[in-house]
């Protein structure tokens, strides 16, 4: 399935799957249903139940999960967080555009300040 076809969930949707027999979690804006994986998780079911219904990106990253783990989590992927609630905004175009605007504005300001200083200096010389 192409990433664009992923089912869209809100953070609240995921939050309702927070029971030991119904464990969903959010890791890097993707939604995982690990209910069937609890028993198999090498790190134990307890840690997964603890973050049930929650955002667990930092917990997942902190463990330093292996490439194998990252590969195997794909089978539990059920969807992704709706764009408005994502942490990493997909619209990187908007990000870079605003970054560009900031850069241009910053540069203009710096040039302006530089010119002002030059003018001031040349003015005082007279
Ligand atoms: C879909 C989600 C997850 C998958 C597929 C997964 C898979 C695995 C795998 C395969 C391992 C064995 C070590 C490795 O290969 O890195 C592991 C270890 C572990 N995982 Fe997960 N994990 C998931 C989510 C989480 C989350 C959310 C937490 C914490 C809240 C967590 C905590 C741990 C811990 C503490 C270990 C043990 C590390 C150790 O003993 O060295 N895992 N996990």
TrEMBL record:
Membrane topology summary: Single-pass membrane protein
Pfam families membership: Cyt-b5
Gene3D superfamilies referenced in this protein's UniProt entry, alphabetically: Cytochrome b5-like heme/steroid binding domain
Domain Cytochrome b5 heme-binding stretches: 6-82
Protein's cellular compartments: Endoplasmic reticulum membrane
InterPro entries noted in UniProt: Cyt_B5-like_heme/steroid-bd, Cyt_B5-like_heme/steroid_sf, Cyt_B5_heme-BS, Cytochrome_b5
Coiled coil: none
Keyword hit for Transmembrane: yes
Transmembrane segments: 97-119
UniProt entry keywords in alphabetical sequence: Electron transport, Endoplasmic reticulum, Heme, Iron, Membrane, Metal-binding, Transmembrane, Transmembrane helix, Transport
Subcellular location, principal: endoplasmic reticulum
Family per similarity comment: Belongs to the cytochrome b5 family.
Database matches in PANTHER family: CYTOCHROME B5 (PTHR19359), CYTOCHROME B5 ISOFORM B (PTHR19359:SF129)
Protein's UniProt name: AGAP002113-PA-like protein
Native source species: Anopheles sinensis
Lineage: Eukaryota, Metazoa, Ecdysozoa, Arthropoda, Hexapoda
